[in-house]
Amino acid sequence: MSISKRLSLAATLLIFTGCSLSSDPYSDDYFADDFAMETLQSETTDLKPAEENIEEKTPEQPRKKTNNKAKSSYSSKTQIVSEVSKKVAALDTKLQQIQENISKNSELFQELEKSSADNARHYYEYVAQIYARLQKGTTPGNPELTEMWKQASALLTGSDKDMTETAKLSSETIRLKNELDSFLNTITETFSIPGAMEIDHENLKTLEDRANQTVVLLNRLSSEISAQIARQQQYFSAESQNINMLSNDIQKGSMTPSRLQTSIAIPANRSSLLPVATYLPEANLSGRRPLMVIRFNKKNVAYEQSLYKAVKAALDKRPRTSFEIVAVSPKNTKSGEIEAIKNAEAIRTSLISMGLPENRIYLSKSDNASIQTTEVHLYLK
Predict the structure, then answer these.
(1) Residues near 299 by beta carbon (within 8 Å), at least 6 away in sequence
(2) This model's pTM is above 0.85
(3) Are residues 100 and 246 in the same domain?
(4) How far is CA 41 from CA 45, 176, 224, in A?
(5) Dihedrals φ, ψ of 168, to 5°?
(6) Contacts of residue 212, Cβ cutoff 8 Å, sequence gap at least 6
(7) Is residue 279 assigned to a domain?
(8) CB atoms inside a 10 Å sphere around CB 124
(9) Which residue, among 338, 357, 337, 339, has the nearest Cα to 348 in the 3D structure?
(10) Closest C-alpha to 294, from 311, 280, 282, 277
(11) Measuring CA to CA, how many Å separate 237 from each of 163, 195, 240, 276, 277?
């Protein structure tokens, strides 16, 4: 090969070799430095040094903050806590406390209900044995029957204690009702507080739904307690008279024919079958204006809320006042009189369940030729 061709080939190789040697190292060093810088920056951030120094050394930091804004502002992981958020958290804790109290009251009511049923069952077992022995005739003052009578009397006293505890439980449900009403009002007011996030309002709606469901459960418990109190009162009132007459029969060793006829069959669920006493004093209504009139002109009359408001307003003005419940029936209708008295007894039970003492409630009756259906009038005593 000629010298000129060799020099030309060498020059060409040097050109290509020179480009490769000059560009590749430059490229590798550039990206290596850039990667090292990014790695160092990441490591320093994880170690949480002074944030001010990082922001000064890394001018790209504002871009990263901009990327954070792309996340949902309603995420539960947000660090923004508004005043309404704090309010919602407090309301949630409050509702949990109310629900726990209702659960405890429900469990206590079930225990009292079982205790009352057990007492009644054992009571009627003793009474049935006494009746059976007296029906055949026995010795006056028979000690075996006397002992049975003592056991029955103790069970009846236990039922009275259960009734007292159930009445206290009824008062507690009234308190919880008022607490729930106040809770729902607070939720309504919280909706209008400025500075809330949308997630706060969503949480408030959830709390409102839970509270309304709790109201339904509490109302059901309250109704069951009221019904139980009514049964206990009828049972205790009737059997208190019966146990005293039974004591006299034991002392004689026999029963009178009229007593014998009424005591042959004693149903196990007698507490639910006891007739309402129809003897009530006649009310003196001259010159008196009723605090409330409840007309029973349909099958189910919703009077509880109106009754509570009327009684509360009266007690706010006169805390120690008493009330008279008057059973008003159409004139010359015996069935209407019985029905009116039953309704009056139901009103009395409702007042007791609201926490009003029994000794401040009076029952009486009246009739009215101008009415077609039974009524119950409530007067201040």
Answers:
(1) none
(2) no
(3) yes
(4) 6, 58, 69
(5) -65, -40
(6) 184
(7) no
(8) 20
(9) 357
(10) 311
(11) 12, 60, 5, 11, 10
Q: How many domains does the chain have?
A: 3
Full DSSP string of 103-138 = HHHHHHHHHHHHHHHHHHHHHHHHHHHHHHHHHH--
Whole domain around residue 22: which residue ranges? 17-66
Tens of pLDDT, residues 96-122: 999 999 999 999 999 998 988 888 889
- Of the chain, the percentage scoring pLDDT greater than 70 comes to 72
Which backbone phi and psi does 377 adopt, to 5 degrees? -105, 140
Is the same domain home to 156 and 303? no
End-to-end CA distance of the chain: 139
- Per residue in 324-378, pLDDT (tens digit) is 999 999 887 766 787 888 888 889 888 887 778 887 888 888 888 888 889 999 9
Q: Is residue 126 part of a domain?
A: yes
Residue owning tokens 């029955």: 152
Q: Are residues 87 and 170 in the same domain?
A: yes
Q: Are 377 and 292 in contact (CB under 8 A)?
A: yes
